[in-house]
Amino acid sequence: MPVAGAVEVTPGLVDRGDPGGDLTTGRAAFIERAQTRGDLFIEQRYELYSEANQETWRRLYRALAGRWEQHANPRFLEGVARLGLDPDRIPRLSDINRFLQPLSGFRARAVSGYVPAYLFFDCLRRREFPTTITVRDGGRLDYLPEPDIFHDLAGHVPMHTDPAFADVLVRFGEAARTAAMRARNGDCRRVESALRGLARFFWFTIEFGLMRRPDGNGLCAYGSGLLSSAGEIGHSLESPDVQRVPFQLDWVVNQSFEIDSLQPLLFVVDGFDHLEREVMRLERWLGRGRLDNVAPGEPEVSREDLQSFLEPGA
Ligand SMILES: [Fe+2]
């Protein structure tokens, strides 16, 4: 079962093997060993970051900091300051959590890799954010086939300092729970459809969402996929090739997306209250079966994700 790998690493079982000195995405021996053992939740072995990993963090931070000033939602900028993100050093999750938890109850929790969909959303419901600890390859700074610590900690977590945004994430967890309860009685095709709709909603908001500026002057970014990519953030708000449309739930849940190209279509919410209302509507739609027949297309729903909803306690 997919979630059977979600084993908390107890201190006595922590991997103390060859330090390796490299936590680069895709080639970190520490991560491979954790995955082989089936350990999903792990510790951040800070001493394993190489100088090249630290340099990649510095270069990413330098590339994004100016962009954040220009394009990020003000609450994100406040979050960066409140967390005390260091431009020069990869953060320790324990330091981040010391600042984060008193603000919103959220905490970043290190994981070894992909988290099956239901487990991911259920972590949000419990105010835990599964956080990748590896760093992308320094030779491909803007290429992100999967999350890394810059995407997760610099792209997502500053928003989690805001109680209203944190509540929105918890709502996603509740929506996923509603979907899982319904999945018990549903057929696989319907569950797959509901999951696809949920994933699209998450993508077009938490990952790639745009918002009207609080002062009414234009748009800003709150999605982490935009806030952690120097290419995406400028493209999302400056390119004439991007279609920016007001958020429409029925459109969003039926809209395919591609993960490996710059986003040509983005949805705009009016504010965090609006976003929360839409997540609540999503939950109602899930409960009433209104996502049982969404348009086919991306994202593909993996067997592992599907299974995690069909047997959430497994
Ligand atoms: Fe993300």
The percent range for helix content is: 40-55%
Distance between the termini: 6 Å
* Distinct small molecules bound, one entry per kind: fe (ii) ion
Name of the CATH first level: Mainly Alpha
CATH-derived architecture: Orthogonal Bundle
What's the β-strand tally? Answer: 6
Strand order of the largest sheet: 4-3-6-5
State the shape: globular
Arithmetic mean pLDDT: 90
- What kind of sheet is the major sheet? 4 strands, mixed
Number of helices: 13
What is the H/E string? Answer: HHHHEHEHHHEEHHEHEHH
Low-confidence stretches: 1-19
Task: Report Rg.
Answer: 19 Å
Kindly report the name of the CATH homologous superfamily: Aromatic amino acid hydroxylase
Number of domains as seen in the coordinates: 1
**CATH structural fold name:** Phenylalanine Hydroxylase
Polypeptide structure, described:
With 314 residues, this protein is an alpha/beta fold. The protein has a single domain (2-310), classed as Orthogonal Bundle (Phenylalanine Hydroxylase), CATH 1.10.800.10. 50% of the residues lie in helices and 8% in strands. It has helices at 29-37, 51-71, 74-83, 93-104, 117-125, 149-160, 163-183, 188-207, 224-227, 230-238, 249-252, 272-288, 303-310; strands at residues 107-111, 128-132, 210-212, 219-221, 243-246, 265-269. α7 runs antiparallel to α8 and α8 packs antiparallel against α12 (272-288). The longest helix is centred in the N-terminal third of the chain and has 21 residues, at 51-71. The chain starts with 28 loop residues before the first helix and ends with a helix. Mean pLDDT is 90; it is low at 1-19. It binds fe (ii) ion.
